[in-house]
Design goal:
Strands 1-2-3-5-4 form a five-stranded mixed beta sheet, with helices on one face. The radius of gyration is 30 Å and the shape is elongated. By secondary structure, it is an alpha+beta fold. The protein is built from seven helices and five strands.
Length: 267
């Protein structure tokens, strides 16, 4: 009996000590696995940042090519059109106030177009953002649409000064959306909303115009794709909701807090 007890004791020790040994080695295994996962994540983030930089550099190269084309073609034509309109206004001044206002508006628009082309060529920000905050610049674009006959409601909050690339992206998206309404939606009601919720900025443009099918946009129209690309480069999202006869809703959301590293190389 004594011999049986002494032989059982080592066996018992061996079985009872195994779980403790495993418990001691498991944290070390988890730590190594966690380090490997963090290293893999860092490598993937570095690859993403490299791809973003490559996209940005490709865009810059494309912008330089477009700037040359604008300078040699469109800018010259717009300037010539403006000069012709000014000559027309001097020689054949319209009699009615409405006709004079229309002609003056046409001259003003061609001047603004010429200025905008020059700024694009120089890669400078829009004049509206040089002299005004983002809220004021977007409100000005909305009021221009209202002066031309659309019923516009604005809910534009002063979101303060934002990073330059965020302001430029939001302004260009608003500009494009309002221009699309002018060209395609018909005379309708329009609502423009700009708000800031902590580190998130939200822009929404809604109309009750003719609408369209987002999956069947005409070839050669790059406005919607341009909106999505501008937001995506800042880590933002664009939601486009529309249906023929049911108007259009475009909602943009940019979270500045999660995109600091991206702007480090876009600025």
């Amino acid at each position: 009996m004594k011999h049986q007890l002494t032989t059982l004791i080592p066996e018992t020790k061996r079985h009872t000590s195994f779980p403790f040994d495993r418990a001691q080695t498991a944290p070390e295994h988890w730590r190594k696995e966690r380090e490997q996962l963090l290293l893999l994540l860092a490598e993937r983030e570095a690859e993403i940042h490299l791809l973003r930089r490559m996209v940005f550099e490709a865009q810059r190269a494309g912008q330089r090519r477009i700037a040359r084309e604008l300078h040699d073609g469109v800018a010259q034509q717009i300037t010539a059109a403006c000069l012709h309109l000014q000559a027309l206004a001097g020689r054949y001044r319209p009699r009615s106030p409405e006709a004079r206002a229309t002609l003056e508006r046409a001259i003003e628009l061609t001047r603004c177009a010429a200025d905008e082309v020059r700024r694009v060529i120089a890669d400078a920000p829009p004049a509206a953002l040089e002299t005004h905050r983002l809220a004021e610049a977007i409100c000005s674009e909305a009021m221009a649409l209202q002066r031309d006959g659309w019923r516009v409601t604005t809910r534009i909050a002063d979101v303060g000064r934002l990073p330059e690339d965020v302001e430029l992206a939001l302004f260009r998206i608003a500009q494009e959306a309002l221009q699309n309404i002018r060209r395609h939606a018909g005379r309708c009601r329009v609502q423009v909303t700009l708000a800031r919720e902590g580190a998130c900025v939200r822009l929404e443009i809604v109309d009750n115009g003719c609408g369209f099918d987002p999956q069947q946009t005409a070839a050669g129209r790059f406005g919607l794709a341009g909106m999505q690309e501008r937001a995506a480069l800042l880590g933002g999202t664009v939601i486009i909701q529309s249906h023929p006869g049911c108007g259009t809703r475009i909602a943009i959301r940019i979270d500045m807090e999660t995109d600091d590293e991206t702007r480090m190389w876009t600025n």
